[in-house]
Amino acid sequence: MPELPEVETVVRTLRPTITGAKIAAIQLNRTDIVTPANTNLTPLLTGKTITSIDRRAKRIVITLDDCNRFYIHLGMSGRLTLDQVTHPTKLHTHFIIELENTTTQIRFNDPRRFGGVFWLGTDSAEKDLGPEPLTLKPAHLAKQLQHTRRPIKAALLDQTIIAGIGNIYADEALFLAKIHPLTPANKLKPIQISALNRAIKQTLRQAINFKGSTLRDYVNADNSPGGYRTKHKVYDRAGDPCTRCRTPIKRIVLTARSTCFCPDCQKR
DNA sequence: GTCCATGTTCTTTA
DNA sequence: CTAAAGAACATGGA
User: Fold this and answer.
1) pLDDT digits (tens, 9 = 90+) for A30-81
2) Closest to A6 in 3D by CA, of A69, A64, A72, A50
3) Is the whole model's pTM more than 0.85, yes or no?
4) Closest CA-bearing residue to C1' of C13
5) Between the CA of A258 and the C1' of B4, what is the distance in angstroms?
6) Any atom of strand C under 7 A from CB of A148?
């Protein structure tokens, strides 16, 4: 599901309501969604005040007034929503944060359970993450890519190389930059790296403006779907005409992921 | 029944 | 040894 734009959208929606809010209680309906295993969240969260909520890559990082923090990862099917306490709880709602002095609560719902709650304590949320794409300079992107011969599409999905891009926005950015997804990452010319860096930023920013892409599961924290899906140029458009040249969009499988591109605009 | 899906991590292979 | 490919995780919709 959720890549950088979707996670950013959720964070922006939650921020005004939950910043400064005090946690009255929590409900944890499945303990196996918490990492490290056997972390008892109840004493760590109850009575604490939320100081801030931020995004790092695809992680939703919540910091408490005692300087401890944790993050929520939405995985493939996760939702983090702000719901009225009277609103019926959906199936697969694993974790609820009850807030003082409000009629709403934060609910984490995740049918496939690829997501979860990750307790950090005073550790940072940086572990195993590459740089943020929205502030990345071309020279830094070049440095990140120069040591791998893997296809550029695979490199963009590697969160240790660049953090926050997933299957949709990798395809969309490569189309915008006119780069074939199978091009070895270390074979990209400087001009292509610059184009890719710009394309990544532009794609992610536009997606954020449309509040992300909803394929099936993703919704914003207010339960509304994202509006960017109809703007996709290649993702999930196999067989449809390219918006630039009318050539049918091609679909290949790369590292077990569907990869869509225009064979005419994105030559090897 | 089959195949596929926005992600990550562990294991196996080269 | 490292880099890269593959499998696994769990659920639901087409």
Assistant:
1) 999 999 999 999 999 999 999 999 999 999 999 999 999 999 999 999 999 9
2) A72
3) yes
4) A216
5) 10
6) yes
- Cα gap A210→A208, rounded to integer Å: 5
Provide the CA A35 to C1' C14 distance, Å, integer: 33
Nucleotides of B under 7 A from a protein CB: 4-9
Q: What residues of A are annotated to the active site?
A: 2-3, 58, 257
